[in-house]
Amino acid sequence: MNEAAVLEVGREALWVILKTAGPIMMAGLAIGLIIALFQALTTIQEMTLTFVPKILVIFSAVILFLPWMMSTVVEFARTLFDRMVSLG
User: Fold this and answer.
1) Are 12 and 76 contacting, i.e. CB atoms less than 8 angstroms apart?
2) Residues 6+ apart with CB under 8 A from 20
3) Could you tell me which residues come within 8 angstroms of residue 71 by beta carbon, excluding any fewer than 6 positions away?
4) What is the pLDDT along the chain (88 residues), one digit of tens a residue?
5) Are 54 and 32 contacting, i.e. CB atoms less than 8 angstroms apart?
6) What is the DSSP letter of 50?
7) Alpha helices in the chain (DSSP H)
8) Separation of alpha carbons 73 and 88, rounded Å
9) What are phi and psi of 2, to 5 degrees?
C-alpha cells in the first residue's frame, strides 16, 4: 500500500465523519440559533432554556438519521475490508 492509497483512505474516512456528523451538528446549530433569537426578542436570559430543546432536537435528529448514518459507515467499512482482502 503506497502513500497515495493511505491518503485516499484517510480522505474517505474524514468525508464519512463529516457526512455522518453533519446532520446532527446542523440540527443543533439551527435550534441554537432559534433559541438565541427567541431569547434576544423576549429578553429571557435563562441558561437552562437552551439545554432541553437542544437535547430533544439532537436526540430526534439521531433517531431520524441513524439508519442513513449506519448505512454510510457500513458501506465505508465494507470498502476498507475489500481493500484489506485485496492486499493480502
Assistant:
1) yes
2) 69, 72, 73
3) none
4) 789 989 999 999 999 999 999 999 999 999 999 999 999 999 888 888 889 999 999 999 999 999 999 999 999 999 999 999 998 7
5) yes
6) T
7) 3-42, 51-87
8) 23
9) -90, 180
What is the gyration radius of the CA atoms in the chain, in angstroms? 19
Residue among 16, 10, 24, 3 at smallest CA distance from 76: 16
Amino acid present at 73: V
With H, G, I as helix, E, B as strand and everything else as coil, classify residue 88: coil
Whether the model clears a pTM of 0.85, i.e. scores above it, the answer is no
* Cell, residue 1: 500500500
